[in-house]
Specification:
Elements (H helix, E strand, L loop, with lengths): L6 E4 L6 H17 L4 E5 L2 E6 L2 E6 L5 E8 L5 E7 L8 E3 L6 E4 L6 E6 L3 E7 L2
Parallel strand pairs: 1-2
Antiparallel strand pairs: 2-3, 3-10, 4-9, 5-8, 5-10, 6-7, 6-9
């Protein structure tokens, strides 16, 4: 029997802004429905809702583009710490109206670690 580890959705990040935000909102709903991570891919972008805790992302597959970001959607994140990014965060608050971590990139280590106290949207460019 095969096991499913992740659900990948193609589309939903293009066109009307209200529809894009509805796709982001769906990621919040998905965490209440199923235990599997849901990734949304649209052309050159990928989004993934990180849950509170520590995360290790492998960014050395050759499919990564140049940029990435962390966006606090739904709630401010009181404490975010990262490694593996050009501009790392150390116990930083991410909140609309103060700091939102966009237009970042990688430090070429091949691994990004993220620790967050609240759900946090990871976004990155991809090559497909």
């Amino acid at each position: 029997m095969e096991q499913v580890d992740v659900i990948v959705t193609l589309g939903g990040l293009e066109g009307r802004f209200d529809h894009i935000m509805a796709s982001v909102n769906t990621l919040f709903h998905a965490t209440k429905i199923m235990p599997l991570p849901v990734i949304v891919i649209q052309e050159c972008s990928l989004i993934y809702l990180l849950q509170p805790g520590k995360h290790k992302l492998h960014v050395d597959t050759g499919l990564e583009g140049d940029w990435c970001g962390l966006i606090p959607v739904g709630n401010p994140c009181e404490s975010v710490t990262t490694t593996g990014l050009k501009w790392n965060l150390t116990n930083q608050m991410l909140k609309f109206g103060t700091l939102v971590s966009t237009s970042n990139t990688y430090d070429n280590s091949g691994i990004v670690t993220i620790e967050t106290d609240k759900p946090l949207l990871w976004t990155m460019s991809i090559k497909i």
